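Sample entry (154 residues):
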Amino acid sequence: RTRVYNPATDAWSWGYDLMRRMVNITSVLLDDERVLSCGGYDQDADGFQDECWIYDPDKHTTKSVGKLREGADGIRMIKLTNGVVAIAGGYIASGRSNKVDLFDASTESWAVGANMPYFLGNTIVAPLPGNKFLLAGGEGGVATNSSGTTALSW
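Predicted structure, serialized as tokens:
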């Protein structure tokens, strides 16, 4: 289960139930105050997950909104200024990913972004002006703990 923290009351409450026993799920707050969550690792099925869902805290409901191109955990998500969510990198069954998936929350539709020039996992992500974002550090390419950075835009 998930938990919701309310700083006004300094208290925790129960959120929504996860579909399975998962770790390394990644989430981002959407413009309409719903939460998009994707990926992760299913501990019971012993596999990377490709599912994405939206949690609506006002209605206390979740709904499936599609799938990533491949199951991954350790992905990075960032909401760009145009409202599109970029979902990049992570760990997949064959190693690390260089894929970028794009989710438009206003239409709940998916698009494929250009592949990153490096395979990246466990990076940091930061917004840049002009619907760009920065991925830095993490594990990538051939070397572990690369010091490379990648800036991408949509």
